[in-house]
Amino acid sequence: MEVDRRAGPRTRRLRDWLLGADSERPRQQGPHGRPPERRHHPWWKVMCLTGVDYFSTLGYQPGIAALAAGALSPVATLVLVLVTLLGALPIYRRVAVESPHGEGSIAMLVRLLSYWPGKLLVLVLLGFVATDFIITITLSAADATAHIDENPFWPEGLSGQRVLLTLLLVALLGAVFLKGFTEAIGIAVVLVAVYLALNTVVIAAALWQVVTHPSAVGDWTTALTTGHGDPWMVVGLSLLVFPKLALGLSGFETGVAVMPSVRGDPQDTEDRPLGRIRGTRRLLTTAATIMSVFLITSSVTTTVLIPPEAFEPDGPANGRALAYLAHEYLGEVFGTAYDLSTIGILWFAGASAMAGLLNLVPRYLPRYGMAPTWARAVRPLVLVFTAVAFLITVVFEASVDAQGGAYATGVLVLITSAATAVTLAARRRRQRGRTVAFAVITVIFVYTTAANVVERPDGVKIAACFIGGIILVSLLSRLNRAFELRVQRVELDPEAARMIDECAGRRIRLIAHEPAGRDPAEYHDKLAQTVADNDFPADSDVIFVEVTVTDPSDFETELLVRGSVVHDNYLVLSLASSAVPNALAALLLEIRDRIERRPHIYFEWTEGNPGGNLLRYLVFGQGEIAPVTREILRRQEPDRSRRPHVHAG
User: Fold this and answer.
1) Count of alpha carbons within 13 Å of 53, Cβ hemisphere only?
2) Strand, helix or coil at 576?
3) Angle, nearest 10°, between helix axes 2-19 and 378-395?
4) What single string gives the DSSP state of each residue in 276-331?
5) Vertex 536, ends 533 and 541: CA angle to 5°?
6) Rounded to 5 degrees, what are φ and ψ at 102?
7) 66-93: per-residue pLDDT in tens?
8) Mean pLDDT (whole number) for 116-120
9) pLDDT interval class at 135 (50, 70, 90)
10) Do 613 and 545 contact (CB within 8 A), yes or no?
11) Which residues pair with 512 in a beta bridge?
């Protein structure tokens, strides 16, 4: 027994640590509580968090471009930069305005659809988000492992342990987020500052080599003009090759996902966070500008200075072109320092993805009843995402190439969805010029996504697995949570409060009523039938309760209860909710707590098959109302002596 007593507090401490309040995202306090905002940081610090993914693509993007486009690499990279600055940047600057709380284009698209189609759209888009963000974690860690293996100072006895080393890197990333969000931003700032500084040195040294060795430039221009003499042919082929270079955009899409962490102005409100929007747009513009400069200069230097065969699989520059130049022109010591910086930022590239997941998932799935309530807490989600990353790493054996298709698919689908959302938003606001411009950008990203899917269909297959898994878990969670109270707050208007308070000293009886014509005979007949079925005095205090079902696909709702006197004789409480039984249960508990007496509610038994009626409740929010209301009350109030009475006749 003594052992059990010692284990009890430990278990409680572990539970409190996992679900309890932490410095960033405390869990809900009480049934109607709301989690406070996480700490805010200057926009440039948050840019570093997104930049560990976005800027880290310099570790492999020049090699991908050289391998895909050959001598055309600088021109194809210029196309990528133009698409970034003239396409992705305007899109996400608009998303920051339209969705300033971090939901991104998902929230913008969901506004166009309601009911279950809207929820299904959220699940599909979250599936692509999971594909993008989880693969970001695993692929970046695997790429960091590849850089470790390629370093000449790495012991040969430890080479070949890619899966184990990648799992260790993923675990370290998860440990950082278990510690706290602020710590993650601090690490990101250091890694990005060091990495960009070292890249500046490497590219400056490489450009000096290009300037001082004009023969290398001549060889490149000769290869370019010989193979593609017509300038229009060069442009056309660069456009065709562009989809293979689209990974240079990866990480840019997380800029709006971490928007809630951007510090705004003191006068910002939740409805108008103008300072946060301005800071996020500055973040996006600065990141895109810095990356564009690095992409162009790195593409030119690597294409001119590195032999084409070095980019081939298992070649010394494959996936690490700038690291090759660092070792070649700045020595093994500096090259190793550059390798360590690259390894660090690639390892932590998953931080922006983890931060995006920790922001998006709690905003949607628990609120829709499609995840357990603990999914609002940070630490359990970190453990879940880390476990999924472990599984992906083992399945793909820490291979960068095997995960590349899924990575590109997730990135491009998210950017395409953002472009679509922005186009529709501009059209809805009758902004004709912007609608046309955004539509053109959308077409470009649709083409890029389609080309990537055709060439690498495995990406869609992996994304489909994520989507299927999310839908399955969501449906099971929705079924499991169907009998929760699901009401965050109950508010009585003055007339409703007066009606209830007048009955405080007497037995209060509520009649659940589904109105039809609302004529006097309807209320008279309903009251007479209820009195006859339940055998209580006809002169008792009786209040009719009428619930209007709004969107049954919603899960958590707030109730505004309005009181009225119908036909100068019948007291009526009216409310709207996504589900009738849950609203009635929440109202009964509110009345009990207000007047400190247990109210009685009277139902008619629902006609029809009980199984069909239960299905109607799950899908449409109404059906088997009496027993479901009683079950919700039983779960919410285990003490029978305090539980409101439910009668069915």
Assistant:
1) 32
2) strand
3) 90
4) HHHHHHHHHHHHHHHHHHHHHHHHHHHHHHS-GGGGSTTSTTTT-HHHHHHHHHHH
5) 120
6) 95, -5
7) 877 777 888 888 888 998 899 889 998 9
8) 77
9) confident
10) no
11) 545
Q: State the CB neighbour count (10 A cutoff) for residue 465.
A: 14
- Measured CA to CA, the distance from residue 107 to residue 623 in angstroms comes to 30
Token pair recorded at residue 63: 């090699």
DSSP-derived 3-state class of residue 585: helix
Contacts of 307 (CB under 8 A, 6+ apart): none
Name the token pair of 280.
């996020």
More confident residue, 315 or 225: 315
Determine the pLDDT at residue 227.
Answer: 57
Please report, for residues 130, 131, 399, 458, the alpha-carbon distance to residue 465 in angstroms, rounded to integers and kept in the order given: 10, 9, 19, 11
Distances (CA, A) of 117 to 111, 255, 371, 450: 11, 27, 18, 24
pLDDT score recorded for residue 378:
81
Distance in angstroms (rounded) separating the CA atoms of residues 592 and 582: 15
Look at residue 270 and give its three-state secondary structure.
coil
3-state secondary structure 474-542: HHHHHHHCCCCCCEEEEEECHHHHHHHHHCCCCCCEEEECCCCCCCHHHHHHHHHHHHHHHCCCCCCCE
Question: Could you read off the pLDDT of 185-234 as tens digits, one per residue?
Answer: 888 899 999 999 999 999 999 999 888 877 777 767 776 666 555 666 66
Cβ-in-10-Å burial (0-12, 13-18, 19+) of 505 comes to exposed
Mean confidence (pLDDT) of the chain: 81
Buried b (16+ CB within 10 A) or exposed e, 561-586: bbbeebeeebbbbbbbbbbbbbbbbb
CA angle 280, 286, 288 (to 5 degrees): 100
* 520-561 pLDDT, tens digit each: 888 888 888 888 888 777 667 788 999 888 878 777 888 899
Please name the amino acid found at residue 378: V
C-alpha 415/C-alpha 202 separation (Å) is: 31
- Give how far Cα 571 sits from Cα of 176, 178, 236, 480, 508, Å: 58, 53, 74, 36, 12
Rg (CA), the chain: 30
- CB of 180 within 8 A of CB of 433? no
Q: What is the pTM of this model?
A: 0.74
Helix (H) or strand (E) holding 112: none
- Residue closest to 176 by CA, chosen among 55, 340, 49: 49
State the DSSP code for 596.
T
Q: Do residues 461 and 403 touch, judged by C-beta distance below 8 A?
A: no
Q: What kind and span of H or E run contains 164?
A: helix 162-179
Q: Is 296 exposed, middle or buried (0-12, 13-18, 19+ CB in 10 A)?
A: middle
Distance (Å, rounded) from C-alpha 279 to C-alpha 513?
51
Amino acid identity, position 218:
G
Cα torsion through 182, 184, 190, 195, rounded to 10: -150
